[in-house]
Structures are given as structure tokens and as C-alpha cells.
Design brief:
- By secondary structure, the protein is α/β, with parallel strands linked by helices.
- Helix 1 packs antiparallel against helix 8, helix 10 packs across helix 11 and helix 12 packs parallel to helix 13.
- About 0% of the residues have low confidence.
- It contains 16 helices and 17 strands.
- The radius of gyration is 23 Å and the shape is elongated.
- It folds into two domains: about 190 residues, 3-Layer(aba) Sandwich (Rossmann fold); about 210 residues, Rossmann fold, CATH 3.40.50.
Length: about 425
Amino acid sequence: MTPTDASSRARSVREAEVAGRRVLVRVDFNVPLDGGAVADDTRIRAALPTIELLRERGARIVLVSHLGRPGGERDHSLSMAPVAVHLAELLRERAAASNRGAAEVSVELAPAVAGPQVRERAEALLDGQILLLENSRFEPGETANDPELARELAGLAELYVNDAFGAAHRAHATTEGVARLLPAYAGLLLERELSELGRVVSDPERPLVVVLGGAKVTDKIGVIERFLELADSILIGGAMCFSFFRAQGHETGNSLVEEEGVRLAAEALERAAAGGSGAAGTDSTGPAGGSCELVLPTDLVLGERFAADAKPRPSDGVEVPPDWMGLDIGPRTAAAYAETIAAAGTVLWNGPMGAFELEPFAAGTRAVAEAVAASPATTVIGGGDSVAALQQFGLADRVDWLSTGGGASLELLEGKRLPGVEALVSRT
């Protein structure tokens, strides 16, 4: 099943009769905290359209999300309390901006994930009111997809909505288990994610250019293999390029090299040289020119250590001397990648080109970000680091879609089935 198929077959929250009914909504509020406050509310804001739709239609809303990795035990530092406060503030701001009674908006935090007290508070909800459950991963049964926990969660509501695309690749009690026990629907964010990512795979404007960075080839090999059949160009950057260079016999110095990634990189290079799958040129969904070009950097920026005060050293080629490490693509590569992006019809970008968090080594990622932002193409960004880079450079509002899913985005693009989505489709 393609992402487009899943998006068309899952029932939309827009179709649900929710007035006066309790609705359990799985959201992705796994946000960074700093000093007991939300440090980045991107994921919370992404869920607001679904929450507001349900409030406007008179639903009684029970929200559930995980936060961090507490390992099935209560951890005060990972409580949803700051999220409840921040969510209420955002909803009040938006209600005030649209003259919809901001004073009436509140978010109550439940004392636990399940149990008699939680059920009592859920049953006391009135139309438009919101109850946020505690961190779902305080319960060991969450990640184990425990049927008993799923039944307890199902007992809190009459309908289920999954709007947590970032967790849809996990078969957990709140994403998969409970979805099979209640009438289940896709939230607005989940729908949009499936639609935007699905179009990249199923119906892209040509040329389709995929820009991949980050540290590990093993994290991206599935995407590389898939898009060797679908894309016109794959541009490689980040530390993962050193696995490719090692596979080609280049010296990589102290650069980060994933040993398992070297073998995978060698296989990918062989496939690319052979024309991807060999059948892509005759497939209507494959590269317009018949095969995909797998492009590696031709110059680098080196540093003696991974540090903000490290002095950058340009390298005209890709050989890295002993005691040095590659920390960014070079200016010639950045210019070439920008030119390819400018000529694209669709751009998918996942992963930075270098250590963009260190200013001396941010130029390559900045150049790609600026090219993506300026491109007339359809631009889809996946992965937290790519989104963070766009935000750092003030360009996040100049792309078409910023995906909220890291691992979920990659697995969907690879063609894998997402348990949280499959559970919705199986109920239609």
C-alpha cells in the first residue's frame, strides 16, 4: 500500500460525528523541555487544527502522547504538565485572535495514563473541554502494545483519532492497540503528512531531486534504495558521505565513518552505476531520464576536531588527511547542489550537509537550505535536523511542507507499512 492509498482509505476526522462524544486523540507532543517549559512547540502547533476542529464541533477531548523515554516508570522531569500549560496558552491565543472565547479554553492534566481517577475525569468532561493524559510511556504497557492498557484507554472514549504521524511507525498501545477497539479516524496532520510525502513517491513533478545528509548510511539506505528507482538525482552530504568515500577507497582521516555503512554504500554505488533497479526507465513512476544519478561531494571543509572554535580548512578534493575530519561539504559541491535543486520540479530533503550547529561548518547546509527555500519546485522537508536547520537560518516558512516525523517519514518513504496508519485503514 502506498502512502497515497493509505491517505485515501483512512477515514478522516472530518467525517466523524463527535458532538457530545468523548474522543481519544493520539497526538505527538514529544517536545524538548528546558527549565520546566516547552523549548520548541512545533509539534504542538501542528496538532492544533485537529484539536480546534474537535472543540468547534462539540467533542469532549482526551489527548494522549509520549514524552521522552522514561522506560515505563514515572519521571517527574518528563511529566506532561508543561505541555498542558503551553497547549492551553496556544489555544487561548488562537481563540482570542479569532474572537472565539479565549477565556473558556483550558487544558486539564490527568494524574495518570489510565485508572479509575482518569476515567472519572474523562467522564466529567463537557463539550469542548480537554483532558491531557500523563506521559503514555510512564506505563510499561505502552511500548509493549499491551492489550489491557489499550482496553483501558478505549474505555475513556467513544471514538479514536490518530494525529501523531511522528509515532505512527510504532505499534504501541496508543497508536495501534486502541485503534482496533474504537471507531478510528485520521487527524488533519496525519492526513496531510500522508498526502505530502505520498506525492513525492507517487506523483512528483520532474526532475525529482532527493537531498540526503546526516550521520549514518544505515538510517538512510532504505530511502536511497527506493529513490534509486524513483528519483532523477540523489545528492549525498553529511557524515554519511564518508562511508561512500571509504567504499571508493578514499582516505577519510578521523571523519565519522559507519563501518556497516561502508558495505551498504558500496552496494548503492553499484546499483546506481547499473541504473538503479534496471527497470526504472520503463516504469512511469521512475526517473524521467531512465536512471537516477547518485551524486557525492567533490570538495570538503575539514576541521581538526568537532568544536565551534575549530578552524575550518577547505579541501579541494575528498581525501581527508590523518588527524583531520570532514565536517561540511565544500563550496564547489554546495554550488553544484544548489544548481541541481534550482532546476528541480520536486525536492525532498532529509538530513544536514555538515555540522551546521557549529558556525564554521554551517555553510554547506545553509547553501542547500537557501536553495531549497528559493526553489520554485514543490519542497518537502523530513527529519528533525533539516527542519532545525531551516529554522536556524530563518527559512522554515519558505518551503511547502515540514514533516513532523523523523523515523516515520523515512519508513513511509522507504515503502514500509506504518502500524498506526494500518490500524486506521483496517477499520474502514
